[in-house]
C-alpha cells in the first residue's frame, strides 16, 4: 500500500472530478491520502471529504502565505477546529520567505499557534518551510522546549543541513515529485540517504506532478511514480519503500489506525 501524505483534494482541478481522482489513486495502490487545508475557509470542505471517504484524512491549518488574513486564528481556534475524529494533523503551517505574501512576524505567530495546538491535541504538525530554514529550526527547537511536538517537513527541497536538523528534532521528511526532476540533483542526493523509518512520500496535488506526468495536473495516483523513482534512487525494492513509508504515515498520523 502507498500513502500520499500531502494532497489538496479540494483544490480546483481535483475537486471537480474528485470521485474519479480517488478511483485512479486506489487503482494504483494508494490506500491513504491526507487532505491538507491551508486557510480557514477550507476547513469544512476538507473535513467533509474525510468524513465521506474512508481512506482520506484531514488537517486543520493556515498556510504561511495566508497568515496576514488570519490574525484571529490562535491556538484555541485551531484546537477547537481539530477536535474531530477525521482530523489527524495541524497545518500546513510554517514559514515562507520566498514570496513574502504575509508579514514574517505574522507567519511566526501563527506557526507558533499551530505548535501550541499540537501540544494541546497531541496531533503532529505539517510544516512548510521555504527560504526560511534557520528560523524554522529555531522556532521548532524553541517550541519543543515547551513540550512534546512531532510532525513532518513537507515537500522537502531544502539543504542537507536542514534535513539533518529536522531529523535531529524528531521530524519526518516528506519527498514530493520534485525529486524526479532532472534539475533536482541536490535533493536526490539527500533523498537517497534519508533513513527509511523517517521518510514519507507526497504529491502536493494538484501541484508538482512527477516525471512522467510533468505539465499535467498532479493527483494522488502519481505518488506511485515518485515511489518508484525513489526506490530506484535508493536501491530498495519499491515494495519495501512503499510499505515502510505507509507504515511511517500511520505511525505519525496515529488516528489513521482507527
From TrEMBL:
Domain of life per record: Bacteria
Record's keyword annotation contains Nucleus: no
InterPro entries xrefs: DNase_TatD-rel_CS, Metal_Hydrolase, TatD-like, TatD/YcfH-like
GO terms assigned for molecular function: hydrolase activity
Keyword entries, A-Z: Hydrolase, Metal-binding
Gene3D superfamilies: Metal-dependent hydrolases
NCBIfam families, per the entry: YchF/TatD family DNA exonuclease
Family under the similarity heading: Belongs to the metallo-dependent hydrolases superfamily. TatD-type hydrolase family.
Name of the protein described by the UniProt record: TatD family hydrolase
